[in-house]
Amino acid sequence: MDDLGRSRTDSYRAAIDRGGREEFPKSTKIDKTDGSLLNLNTISNDLQIHENEVKNLTPNSSTTNVIGESKNSPKISKEKQKNVDKLNDLKKEVQMDEHVVSVDEIMSRYSTNAEMGLTSAQAKEYLERDGPNSLTPPKTTPEWVKFCKNLFGGFALLLWIGAFLCYLAYTIDILTKENVLNDNLYLGIVLMSVVMITGCFQYYQESKSSKIMDTFKKLVPSYALVIRDGEKIHLPTERLVVGDIVEVKGGDRIPADIRIICATGFKVDNSSLTGESEPQSRSAECTSENPLETRNLAFFSTNAVEGTATGVVIYTGDNTVMGRIAHLASDLEAGKTPIAREIENFIHLITAVAVFLGIVFFITSFILGYHWLTAVVFLIGIIVANVPEGLIATVTVCLTLTAMRMARKNCLVKNLEAVETLGSTSTICSDKTGTLTQNQMTVAHAWFDRAVQLIDSEQLPKVVHLLENSNDNTTELALLRIAALCNRSEFKANQKDKPILRRECTGDASEIALLKYAELRIGNVAAYRAKHKKVAEIPFNSINKYQLSIHAVPQNSSVNCLLVMKGAPERILSKCSTILLEGNDVPLTSEIRVNFEKAYMELGGLGERVLGFCDFWLDKDIYPPSFEFNVEESNFPIEGLRFVGLISMIDPPRAAVPLAVSKCRSAGIRVVMVTGDHPITAKAIAKAVGIISEGTETVEDVATRRGIPVEEVDLSEAKAIVVHGSDLREMDADQLAHTIEMYPEIVFARTSPQQKLLIVEGFQRQGQIVAVTGDGVNDSPALKKADIGVAMGIAGSDISKEAADMILLDDNFASIVVGVEEGRLIFDNLKKSIAYTLTSNIPEILPFLIYILFGIPLPLGTVTILCIDLGTDMVPAISLAYEAAESDIMKRKPRDPVRDKLVNSRLISLAYLQIGVIQASAGFFAYFWIMADNGFMPFDLFFLRSEWDSMAINNVLDSYGQEWTYTNRKILEYTCQTAYFVSIVIVQWADLIISKTRRNSIVQQGMANWTLNFGLIFETCLAAFLCYCPGLDNGLRMYGLRLSWWFPAIPFSILIFLYDESRRYLIRRYPGGWVEKETYY
Asked: How many C-beta atoms surround the C-beta of residue 266 within 10 A?
């Protein structure tokens, strides 16, 4: 619990019990200087309160619920129990008492001494016991296993089975027939080639394997300053052990988890660990029961920003907080992506249809008197005919093309399947700092002359005359003067050509914001500082809560120096007796103090960090140029100063985020903020970007508006909630689920990395497809667990990038909207592509079935089927990936993963039983047309197969009594197969055009997809090439057709177009009607 936690727990306990809500009492103020929470009425007692709180703490006094655990979890195998227990332990909140016990007890516990440190013998013993201070890498999946998964997993397995069956059928043919065609052999080879090529391609695309642990290792500092045997030595961090006394200073990385013994102006950057956007003060005092929020702990791999500290090592290696996060992120198993589940569902569906048809016709063959081996060949043939050989390549290429398109829009996809997952997303759990905000503190408001002024850093005019007149008493100029002088931050060298707001700086984030603000307003702060040299300084510390500096004032007759001070507003105000108003010094009256408190409350309520500013001119007679200022004895005034004003800062939202959140809401996607930052700040940013929409209130907002206690508010009146991490810690899975269901707009604040993970799992248990965005180490477990993890490419840590499935190269949350649209588009287009591809299955399967049932010469050969699936259909199928979105793509809700499958019964019905039957009719019409043209009337072909295929019979009679030799019969058969093939190509013209849209008319959709237009031309030209190219009559058994034989299929193609246009018209005309329910796929 943070500084606010215990002071408000009792008054809020009832509210928490009713749903985990947390907000802040109306009188609560933020001390933006150090990130703690203060009450204006109890400022003077704050240190005593902390002291009393610490006395009341006991080690491990709080219990932790693992939200992900279910009371009725199903039993799992024993070999997995150990890993599950380990993972559940990692999911628990950090439990330790080293921050609440006394330093003496810590020293006793680890047998160490603050002055002498450990002895070498002790260190050697501890190192042998605990191991090196490094992260143990987890077991990784060998590359050959990953390669095999791509080669044999999912859809590829179906093709391998098909290839095996082809070889089996070929073997049976060799054993039972004298003259064996090599069709099944060729088909088996082609199937193997397809699966191997696509498997290698997928492996190549995904070869950037997850190296999360290696990335964590980069965070380890190489050396640490340690006290051993009473001497200070530099040791490799791997040799640190618990009990070591270490010294750290600004610029260092913390080498292990340490308990602070003493500190001077020490601050650490915890943003990558906790999400707090500003450096956090560290001191020897315990200020919170929560180890992640107390000031007397510093954590492994976080950065020391400024000051110095001495501490004792309490955890090393895997036992550190960072070590737990590292193992949690790397040990989590990412579940199957939605598209992987859809492909698995499709495989089951196709396999079921293939096996059903195969068995039915195997039995039918027996009934018709075929030999059992012949029946087995028929069984295999029917199963293989159901396998869409080109579909795996089509899906892979479509996903790759979309990934390339997304990369051009600054979305880098690491996993091809993640392309579609983002489009399926129903909930986005977004980090705040660096994702929704710029991760750059910026001056937002200033209060002076009794008025709050909005500061727009992009449009600040300069007031250069400040440099010319140091005694100018205009209030804003006085405020700028203090901001420029009482400031230790500086611009890095060689950046004059860069815009001021983009320049890199050294120093504290808040001071950097003030420096840029002053530079924008007065220009060349460095020159102004050089002119007003610093002669004395009291750095900020958590006890004084102010920073003071004294500067020389050259060429002034009455004053020698200027004293400037900034810090916690109430502390600064308490040191002032006057205030500068419109250029005049006036006494600080009670009315002005009320005005000050109102402004402070207003700015603090916006989630902004507020600082107070004051100054004092030091008279030359009292403080001559030779005067020596002593900061230890304070031989200068620190009371009775002149208050000038307030400046508030905030990490502002990215400009494009509000529109992006609005688009997500329109698309039915819920955006939830999950941050480690402060609840007030989180709520303010959530309102600014629209996560908490305008007019939506929390229970506390309702209570404040109506002037009643929180407990009296009807929960149904609130549509938003801010859940504090301390409240989340008290929830079980059911309470979390209730909160998620009850409040459409949620902000989770002060969350730990483990809690972020449990929040993601909570949404997933409700059947949500969850996307997580983040940039810090603390986000990595949630990124790994999410259905799709999205990391920031610029500001994101290496760990977050490795854990994520997608990286936003421009760090722009708005790019997610582009990704969602592309994901939905590729799902729609994959459906269209599959519908187009599956439609030709029926005209490929029926010839074989009719051949078995009615004994006619085979209308379509195996090689010809390959020419369709891997030849004429490939480019058109892929071209559908380029199809533009239909008008409603970002207006509809996320797809229902249960009902809206990639391949569902409605798609199968349309492709097989409607369009497919028309296509088969076209093929058979052309087949019988050419047979009749050559003397064989349709009814004379029935049960002619045995004579037709016999090489010994050379006098088969046609309908006109003409004799046909075996060779002539086969030429006619292959010519008919070629005509059947051309007919399929012609009806596929219409199928391709109708596949462009599932709901809109073609007139609405248009023909602007030039890749698809090229596909139409390509398949036609390829068909013509295969028909008329010399030599292919031997290789592919394709024979040239008369021009008139191209036309029989055209009426069927027109029929398909008109039929589907009518179907889509009825869907639009009668939404929700029978036609939509039965045919809208």
From this structure: 28
| Count of domains forming the chain | 4
Residue 416, domain CATH = 3.40.50.1000
Pair 641, 713 in one domain:
no
Tell me how far apart the 2 most distant CA atoms of the chain are, in Å: 135
* Token pair recorded at residue 986: 């012609």
Cα separations in angstroms, 564 against 548, 567, 577 = 6, 11, 15
For the whole model, what pTM was predicted? 0.73
For residues 789, 795, 797, 802, the Cα torsion angle rounded to the nearest 10 degrees is 40
- How many angstroms separate the CA atoms of 522 and 530, rounded? 14
- Tell me the pLDDT tens digit for each residue of 105-134: 989 998 998 889 999 999 999 999 988 988
CA distance 603 to 588: 21
Rg for the chain, CA atoms, rounded: 37
User: Of the listed 2, 34, 183, 431, which one is catalytic?
Assistant: 431
Q: Are residues 659 and 646 in the same domain?
A: no
Interaxial angle between packed helices 966-994 and 814-839, expressed in degrees from 0 to 180 and rounded to the nearest 10: 150
Q: What is the CATH number of the domain that holds 116?
A: 2.70.150.10
Is the domain of 789 the same as that of 658?
yes
Angle of CA points 224, 229, 234, to nearest 5° = 20
Q: Is residue 375 part of a domain?
A: no
What type of residue is 777? V
Q: Looking at the structure, do residues 951 and 1061 belong to the same domain, yes or no?
A: yes
Task: Please give the structure tokens belonging to residue 422.
Answer: 């983002």
Domain range enclosing 320: 58-69+77-121+222-328
- Closest C-alpha among 1054, 1026, 789 to residue 919: 1054
Q: Is residue 431 among the annotated active site residues?
A: yes
Q: What is the DSSP string of 365-394?
A: HHHTT--HHHHHHHHHHHHHHTS-TTHHHH
* CATH, residue 510: 3.40.1110.10
| Beta strands at 770-774 and 427-430: parallel, antiparallel or unpaired | parallel
Kind and range of the H or E run holding 405: helix 391-408
pLDDT at 276 over 80: no
pLDDT score at 46: 35
Backbone φ and ψ of 236, nearest 5°: -60, 140
Give pLDDT tens digits for 619-635. 888 888 888 898 888 89
Per residue in 423-443, is it b (16+ CB within 10 Å) or e — as a string? bbbbbbbbbbbbbbbbbbbbb
pLDDT band at residue 82 under the 50/70/90 scheme: low
Query: DSSP characters for 511-545?
Result: HHHHHHHHHHHHS-HHHHHHHS-EEEEE---TTT-
For the stretch 733-740, contacts whose Cβ atoms lie closer than 8 Å and that sit 24 or more positions apart, written own/partner, are 733/67, 733/68, 733/69, 733/70, 733/762, 733/765, 735/19, 735/20, 736/20, 736/67, 736/762, 737/762, 737/765, 737/766, 738/19, 739/19, 739/20, 740/766
What is the tens place of the pLDDT at every residue in 348-387?
788 788 888 888 888 888 788 777 777 777 777 777 777 7
Closest CA to 832 of 911, 947, 922: 911
User: In this structure, are 448 and 431 located in the same domain?
Assistant: no
Give the model's confidence band at 17: pLDDT under 50 very low, under 70 low, under 90 confident, else very high: very low
Q: Structure tokens of 603?
A: 């700015």
Residue 455 · residue 673 · CB < 8 Å? no
d(CA 452, CA 646): 9
Q: Give the residue among 849, 193, 945, 977 at the shortest CA–CA distance from 185.
A: 193
827 and 869 part of one domain: yes
With a cut of 60, say whether residue 29 has pLDDT above it.
no
Q: What is the average per-residue pLDDT within 786-815?
A: 82
Do residues 693 and 792 both lie within one domain? yes
With respect to residue 808, please indicate whether it lies within any of the assigned structural domains. yes
Measure the CA–CA gap between 645 and 94, rounded to whole angstroms: 41
From 819, 834, 853, the end of a domain falls on 819
Q: Please give the backbone phi and psi of residue 559, each rounded to the nearest 5 degrees, phi first.
A: -125, 150
